Amino acid sequence: MTDDFDNEGTVPLPPIPKVTPKKGQARAAARLAAVQALYQRDMEGTELHILLDEFHRHRLGAEIEDMQFAEAETAFFDDVVRGYVARAEEIDSLLSSKLADGWRLQRLDKTMLQILRAGAYELLARADVPTAAAISEYVDVAHAFFEPREAKFVNGVLDAVGKEVRR
């Protein structure tokens, strides 16, 4: 297991994903950024208003490590991040109920956990987004960070969440 802190004592964001959203996919970029923002908040405890400001100013649509990211739909990004924070206990409880016996959220990879949290929030609160589309989008985010096996895990958990909250 690697140390989660860099030499300066701060927590780095998850690594730049293997793929980035294609141009014109503002919601896909917003979802990816929301996962990264939730990761930062979880690891560093960054206050919400500071976190959102940082992402608005320096990350959404930015070029990082010679990779140009698509412009993100800022309002959608804000809603996912704020929405999870506002409903964290409810969402974490829901996700916990979908894990196999003996598994706890704390046992999951930190990036994986944020993907599930953002996806669960969207399934709970964004009725304007079809269930299959929301799940598919977060599976795509998982593919950016993980191998296919982990992406299938995201699909399974979010599918179970969707079946419960969107009857």
Explained architecture:
This protein has 167 residues and is mainly alpha-helical. It has a single domain, classed as NusB-like (N-utilizing Substance Protein B Homolog, Chain A). The chain has seven helices and two strands. The chain has helices spanning 26-44, 48-58, 74-86, 88-98, 110-125, 131-145, 148-165; strands spanning 63-64, 67-68. It has a two-stranded antiparallel ribbon. A hairpin with a 2-residue loop joins β1 and β2. The longest helix is centred in the first third of the chain and has 19 residues, at 26-44. It is globular and about 40 Å long. The model is unreliable at 1-9 and 16-24 (pLDDT under 50).
Task: Walk me through the topology.
Elements: H1 26-44, H2 48-58, E1 63-64, E2 67-68, H3 74-86, H4 88-98, H5 110-125, H6 131-145, H7 148-165
Antiparallel strand pairs: 1-2
Helix pairs in contact: 1-2, 1-3, 1-5, 3-5, 4-5, 5-6, 5-7, 6-7
